Amino acid sequence: MKVLLLLPLLIPLLTAIISLLVWDRRLQRIFGVIGMAGLLGSAVGLLRTVCKEGIQAVQVGGWPAPFGITLVADVFAAIMVVMAGLMGLAVMVYSLTSMDKRRESFGYYPLTHIMLMGVCGSFLTGDIFNLYVWFEVMLIASFVLTELGSEKAQLEGAIKYVTLNLVSSALFLTAVGVLYGMVGTLNMADLANQLAKVKPSGLVTTASMLFFLAFGIKAAVFPLFFWLPASYHTPPVSVSAIFAALLTKVGVYALIRVFSLLFTGQTAATHGLILAVAGLTMATGVLGAVAQNDFRRLLSFHIVSQIGYMIMGLGLFTPLGLAGSIFHIVHNMLAKTNLFLISGVVHRVKGTYQLSSLGGLSRSSPGLAILFLVSAFSLAGMPPLSGFWSKLILVQAGLQAREYTIVAVALVVSLLTLYSMTKIWNEVFWKTDPAEGEQEPAKTDSFGEAESSLALLAPIVVIGCLIVSIGLAAQPVFALFEKAAHQLMNPAEYIRAVLGELP
Amino acid sequence: MTSLILSTATTYLLPLLLLLSVYLLLHGHDVPGGGFVGGVVAAAAFALYAIAHGVEEARRVLHTHPRTLIGLGLLTALLSGVIAFVSNEPFLKGLWTTVTLPVEWKLGTPTLFDVGVYLVVVGVTLMIIFSVAED
């Protein structure tokens, strides 16, 4: 079913077009939710097809493979599209209540759809230059989303975000240029074929490192992560949440794709470096997080730390390691988005993100406290939640590959993650409210309305349930990720799906 | 500072420039031109009108909000891809047919795509120019 490959791109585009044409806040909200649900539905259909019938490929415009643009979906890409749809839908429902009228009237909904289109395009494209184009689609929409509302802090964060991402795009483009100059093709499957024939040389290593730098900035790995904690806490919480869910993961996805398909000739050097960077990313991220006193800044540093785990599996470059990476990406999208959404609810109830001025929520809203605990424990890797399994698999893969240092780092960082989650728990939920008795008016807001709190809480509850159920039913989920990792480790099937039976 | 010469001239220039922009758009498939260039010329025509008569007046002459033009343009471009798809060809494949008006006219989905580009370019450029000019 070729149409399934196109739907994750066409549905967000069509939704954005409709939003532009009607431009009525009410209708935009309705179409926004319908569009995201459609995206999720088509993505699930795509994943089912890919699992049943193998890797799917479409030659856009009818131009045959190495010349035209190919859209490809293997299991990994399909999983990522499903997650994008799921996170998009969750955040869209959440935005119905949390987004303010002013930002809505300046095009929050169409921009989000365009960004989702860019994200899905990056997952599905089989052409390295086209990947650059989808990155830009996604980035430009995200630039506007960070700035939407033009608050002072937002603009400051946006400047850092935009500058660093432009640098990364320039590096990406340079890398594509070097690669094209070397082998004369842009199709990723064809590139894999051609690069296998090229003798290992300085130029190949240069190209691979340029890609590593470009995607490393986007994925926020050590030492290129500093833009992320500086900008992710400034926009409204639903924007932070969708950024945390998707954007860095696109960088990780691109890293995994490029370093499992194209640059596999000198794994000792390239993947060894990735592994070292993974360890440093984990450690610096979590140490940064421990020092923070703002709910969302703390979470932003955790994004960085968790990225380390995701590329750890890539650095190990074993089927089990990659399966662990994919598991960790999926788990992290769920847990991290949920924590951001919860921080938004906390902000709504208490009117601040400062940990020191929060408190007492375990008594006033015990349900929220439980939802927080589920996500936080999952992030720290407590059994039986999803984070436990992903870390277990990664650690096991590390032990099998005899990389004991990285395993030790991963375990210590897990403990520190637990520590900083406990810090949030203590400050926000457990300690008595410092403002108890004096500041009642801050609480009221519109949170009391049943309808609005339903839209806020429903996504959090659903994601929380998913975290628990992935933890409890880890085996079938893991089998799926293992299949994805198997396809990544054996690119022959991918190449055949794109190029046909050509020699 | 409205200049009589400019405002009188633009009244006549606007239709001429729009005609030129459509010419560039339709001509673009075989020779230099195309949706982007045509769109820029059309947007420049409206921008000139805005300089001569003010943004309010230019908005009135445009009839719709620039945003609607962006939406319509994207929709047209999307449609040009979907046409190929529903006629059982790969998405976005160029399909051509020849229409015999007094002259023979090659008509195809790439032309439609170019019309989409034209509308998006006019919409985006005017949205920027109008909002900067109104500030």
UniProtKB/TrEMBL annotation, chain A:
Q: Which domain of life is it from?
A: Bacteria
- Coarsely, its chief localization is membrane
Q: Where are the transmembrane segments?
A: 6-23, 30-47, 67-94, 106-125, 131-149, 161-183, 203-228, 240-263, 269-291, 303-330, 368-389, 401-421, 456-481
Name all NADH:quinone oxidoreductase/Mrp antiporter transmembrane domain ranges. Answer: 127-417
What's a GO cellular component annotated to this UniProt protein? plasma membrane
Membrane topology note: Multi-pass membrane protein
Subcellular location as annotated:
Cell membrane; Membrane
Q: InterPro entries per the record?
A: CPA3_Na-H_Antiporter_D, ND/Mrp_TM
Q: Which residues form a coiled coil?
A: none
Q: Keywords, A to Z?
A: Cell membrane, Membrane, Transmembrane, Transmembrane helix
UniProt KW Transmembrane helix keyword: yes
Pfam families reported for this sequence: Proton_antipo_M
| NCBIfam families named in the record | PRK12663.1
Q: Which family does it belong to?
A: Belongs to the CPA3 antiporters (TC 2.A.63) subunit D family.
Annotated protein name in UniProt:
Na+/H+ antiporter subunit D
- Which organism encodes this protein? Candidatus Abyssobacteria bacterium SURF_17
Automatic annotation (TrEMBL), chain B:
Write out the similarity annotation: Belongs to the CPA3 antiporters (TC 2.A.63) subunit B family.
Q: Where's it found, cell-wise?
A: Cell membrane
Asked whether the UniProt record includes Membrane among its keywords, one would answer yes
Q: What cellular-component terms does GO give this entry? A: plasma membrane
| Superkingdom field | Bacteria
Which keywords, in A-to-Z order, does the entry hold? Cell membrane, Membrane, Transmembrane, Transmembrane helix
Bilayer-spanning residue ranges: 12-29, 35-55, 67-86, 115-133
Regarding the membrane, this protein is recorded as: Multi-pass membrane protein
InterPro entries annotated for this entry? Answer: CPA3_antiporter_subunitB (IPR050622), MnhB (IPR007182)
* UniProt lineage: Bacteria, Pseudomonadati, Candidatus Hydrogenedentota, Candidatus Abyssobacteria
Pfam families registered for this protein in UniProt:
MnhB (PF04039)
Under what name is this protein listed?
Answer: Na+/H+ antiporter subunit B
Q: Which organism is it from?
A: Candidatus Abyssobacteria bacterium SURF_17
Q: Where is the Na+/H+ antiporter MnhB subunit-related protein domain?
A: 5-126
